[in-house]
Description:
Four copies of one chain form a homotetramer. Chain A is of the alpha/beta class. Chain A is built from twelve helices and 14 strands. The termini of chain A are far apart.
Amino acid sequence: MRKLRMGMIGGGQGSFIGDVHRKAAAIDGMIELVCGAFSSSAEKSKASGKALFLPEERCYANFEEMILAEKELAPGERMDFVSIVTPNHMHFAPAKMALENGFPVVCDKPMTLTIEEAVELEALVKQTGLLFGLTHNYPGNPMVKQARAMVAKGDLGDIRKVQVQYLQGWMATAVEKTGQKQASWRVDPKRSGIGGALGDIGTHAENLVEFITGLQIEELAADLGRFGEGRILDDDGNLLLRLENGAKGTMSFSQIATGEENNLAIRVYGEKGSLEWHQEDPNKLFTRWLDKPMKVFTPGGNDLYDEAASASRIPSGHPEGYLEAFATVYRNFATHLMAVMNGDSIERPDYPSVSDGVRGVKFIYAAVESDKNNAAWTKIN
Amino acid sequence: MRKLRMGMIGGGQGSFIGDVHRKAAAIDGMIELVCGAFSSSAEKSKASGKALFLPEERCYANFEEMILAEKELAPGERMDFVSIVTPNHMHFAPAKMALENGFPVVCDKPMTLTIEEAVELEALVKQTGLLFGLTHNYPGNPMVKQARAMVAKGDLGDIRKVQVQYLQGWMATAVEKTGQKQASWRVDPKRSGIGGALGDIGTHAENLVEFITGLQIEELAADLGRFGEGRILDDDGNLLLRLENGAKGTMSFSQIATGEENNLAIRVYGEKGSLEWHQEDPNKLFTRWLDKPMKVFTPGGNDLYDEAASASRIPSGHPEGYLEAFATVYRNFATHLMAVMNGDSIERPDYPSVSDGVRGVKFIYAAVESDKNNAAWTKIN
Amino acid sequence: MRKLRMGMIGGGQGSFIGDVHRKAAAIDGMIELVCGAFSSSAEKSKASGKALFLPEERCYANFEEMILAEKELAPGERMDFVSIVTPNHMHFAPAKMALENGFPVVCDKPMTLTIEEAVELEALVKQTGLLFGLTHNYPGNPMVKQARAMVAKGDLGDIRKVQVQYLQGWMATAVEKTGQKQASWRVDPKRSGIGGALGDIGTHAENLVEFITGLQIEELAADLGRFGEGRILDDDGNLLLRLENGAKGTMSFSQIATGEENNLAIRVYGEKGSLEWHQEDPNKLFTRWLDKPMKVFTPGGNDLYDEAASASRIPSGHPEGYLEAFATVYRNFATHLMAVMNGDSIERPDYPSVSDGVRGVKFIYAAVESDKNNAAWTKIN
Amino acid sequence: MRKLRMGMIGGGQGSFIGDVHRKAAAIDGMIELVCGAFSSSAEKSKASGKALFLPEERCYANFEEMILAEKELAPGERMDFVSIVTPNHMHFAPAKMALENGFPVVCDKPMTLTIEEAVELEALVKQTGLLFGLTHNYPGNPMVKQARAMVAKGDLGDIRKVQVQYLQGWMATAVEKTGQKQASWRVDPKRSGIGGALGDIGTHAENLVEFITGLQIEELAADLGRFGEGRILDDDGNLLLRLENGAKGTMSFSQIATGEENNLAIRVYGEKGSLEWHQEDPNKLFTRWLDKPMKVFTPGGNDLYDEAASASRIPSGHPEGYLEAFATVYRNFATHLMAVMNGDSIERPDYPSVSDGVRGVKFIYAAVESDKNNAAWTKIN
């Protein structure tokens, strides 16, 4: 076997998330970046690729060129999959074209601008049989995997209540007017879609709830805020949640929560126990019990379920962070892809799927609709 | 001057909150307990008083007897005020009778069962000119006072977002069927009123939001839960909030949040800064800023506003807790009452008032109405 | 029964620790302050007593007067015990005189200026059979009691390592030159004795180690610092410890640890488990295990030993702090004294004893001697 | 420019630290692994290399073979530097041979078994002019860099006190008898040298103190423990420290601190302020001040010095951990090496040097000597 070869779409110089994807893909030594269409400008794409030590001929002017050119290369040489790290409006087209040309896809979230696109991708994945991974990174955290496993095995009993929050403050002022690249497309419906903070971080919160509880959010009541002057898209949201089993909860997300950095946190309450996890302190899982003292789980520590034990790389007490969780998504995708390329199968792929992507887009649409109706209850479907 | 003499209504043996009130009233050495109608059973009242080292003749069979008998005693000997620590349905009658007979009142929350009663008490307080203190204890915490002062002085800028939670787990199982005294009246609408957890702890959350922000909650959307089998009253609630200035937020409270002890916490986000306070870790106030690192304030520590600096008793680093915050409410009430008895006045009484009590009851009614209407937006008024 | 009557020596206006003792003694409603010799100035003593609502005739000019006068009163009226809260040099004489005149004693720490005095008091207590309580308050904390119980029952296995620290910063600058009352006597060997920070807080650290582990510190190597300009007494210390069972450890204390408030913390490591407690976050006991995840105990929470369960007053999650721990020492002393006055006995008094006081003074002398010998190993005896 | 080519010595299958080095070197995309002598068994070396997707011909039987063979390759193809990740006794020989054959070196710590070897390497580095990096990873943490910068710029004033601890529990039981590979060489003086936990983690603590304070430890008093049955080398240590400027402190390290994972923490107290950092919670730097509230710095957050600001990769609130800090050491070494290869120079290399390695070995020897003399004060030199 050899390392998997990755082609990247987006992620040119100055991109935050492109750099994250490259580092994450590199950590476990299973993937090498071999080509890219890093920017919509051919010149910037080449400059970006050069800084990444790529040969000039594999720094393409656009994704169409890349997909077609790479397809012509020999199997051992061409990219084995593409990673799409562009702004939201540029996910669908390259993902579709990659799949149609036989390339497995790793794609950033939210998956597409519209439900129709999302459903089309889901169908295409099914039809082509190609692998598709969605980079919700938080399910890559060992303690999130432990949380999911504890709920799945019934340790907490029936789930009754969920609280999730994702609080950032970086848009508390009008950063989009200062030339900040990320802010400028985040506030633009053409590039972000109908959700602002909702699409960016609300979808992470939604995904985390459903990943950990194994339950779907059935309906929601959303009160979105647009606090930044002149903003068309939401920069804040408060939601009531009802899950398919009767559990209730709240979601709160914000990009105007002044001073917050990346405060994603979740609490899940069951009949017998409960759990609490904070992204900014990711190496602890706090669990509380009817009749026992609080237990705090740690990556690599005692009494973990296999799902969590296998998700950390280094001994307990050596903190893993955001990049490692992201890397786990890539590692699990790569493991799956290598297996497929070897003609093997794996029991249960452990990374977010195209269907998770569909859920995320439907969640965005439900929240926007609810908000338009003064936070009326709205089903996700 | 001498110590103030307190008569207590409720709080007999086995009562949690009666004991809290007595300890809180004792800490600062300004108040002595001189009499009580501790139970609806004359026998239990006497036994309770005896355990408190009270003379038998001042352990009364009921509050009516106490009020009338004490009134007959000489001014220097009779009780100076009454403290009412009964279940909710027994707040109104003794409070009313005490006021009508010239006794100032300290009363537990929620103040009354109905809005009508609350409004009647408010009018009576105005009419008699007697002091009335409501024991919302959390505003007694030095860091809560610092939080309020920081918002009031504009340190955070305009408030945009609030998150408040009050999570307990002690009713996660059917404790009311085990003979647990508190649980049995908390689930009984006759004694609790129309709110369960809503009245018990939701009102604390409501009060804390309004105390810290100085803003009223204008409307709310409430989704209440009744997870305990057979419960008529709510044991859980999730709410969307809109404040009078346009700020938005969430409230979540629960008594079925398994494993939680007394997890009251609040976050307030303004344009320039934000703050976070946790009741279970009460001696820190976390503040975050647009352009400065997080600052953590502590009681007795550096850079506090006077309101906070004067609210702690011991040097910084010597933790004060629940009882001390409660004691501050009593201390400030006692300071006010002593001033009045001396013919003096004080600039601004610093303890919750009868009007705060009215707000609390109106909040309960608004939340219950919203819940009946599937979490429709409902004004508090 | 009636409340116990306490006479206080020291603790006049402006005293930090006198106020702490009074509040602590008041909380549980078992003790009332009836008289005092609050200051070496008769005038200040009277003014202090008046502010405490005491009758003038029981505000004495000095402790000798108080002890003799109270002795003349009828048993039901005179003070039942004395509480000594003066600077260190004024502990021995009043304690001795009180015992010799039949009054039980509560005394602040360090117990005396010299080992000889300490041993004399110990002998006197034995000879008179009177109760003597030393106000090391930290053993009053529920989580400290849980820690002691866990070690005693063998939960941690044999103890191998101890780390204790007591860090304050209030003397980082020359506060003794600013008229700060406490600082001025703390730096004065005539009033403090041969130890500075050593006597003030080092003794707390020593007591905590021995209380929790149930083991004596056999020898120590002490490197004391005098960082404040012109200070004769230590304001900082670093020590190596060897316990009687072969365990090893460190102690570090300081009053020049800039910015620290009252950071007393201890870690104890045994063969099977370990524990960690922080005075500034007193309501958690962190325990770590060979083969289980961390467990966090809380006052009033699950799985506590009786010693800890009985030491908290309010339900779990309602934080108790410094005053409550202090109050527990008074409560347990009062419970014992009431039993004795009723002709009963109690199984095991749960408050620090005169022998703990002797240990503390011997510890001070050993540390000073070690320091003089360039941190040579020195036995405590 | 192209990626730097790394050859690795040690780090075969099952090695913890070899894997850490590879991941750390990969993260920033500046280094690729091209060859290795991964094991003293040629067979295991090949198997290890294969699993890393290396061509068989560049998986060497031993380091001598690797150095000689690679030297024969063309400059663009052969390794650019070697990374030595073997047990301690196998650092010196390959480092020396690499340098003598013109290869820059990255070497794990402690650098050598003896002071003589360390000094010889230091001379060889000077003589050859080749780069040499020592992988003390903790100085790679952004908050450690901030700490160092704050001290250097005088923010804390003169340093008076230091407390450092490095607590692990993985050797609390006799793991070396269970076939645990790491434990077996750690307890073996032939492979570990004269220090056990002292060499493994004590050196990290020593390095951290000197890195942050910019001060050398002048002398120490060490009380080492050998708690594991039959252990020849220390598995625990408690030390008094005196720094060159008169500051004092303690160090405590252990591998028998049951339940501890990787609890490295440091506190540094200056005349004006102090700081506290915990490796297990690496993304916060707590600072305390004479006259201001605590400030908490975070990677990517407000008010960082350049040294810290440039050391984090992702926005604030996205936690970086152990691997990222390790990667920063590699990145800074690689940046330096690329500059040198390009004929450039860099102002101040920001990674631990061969001289830091000499300090570490001298520290080990001083501590062992002190311990032999019953913790007598011993100079490091």
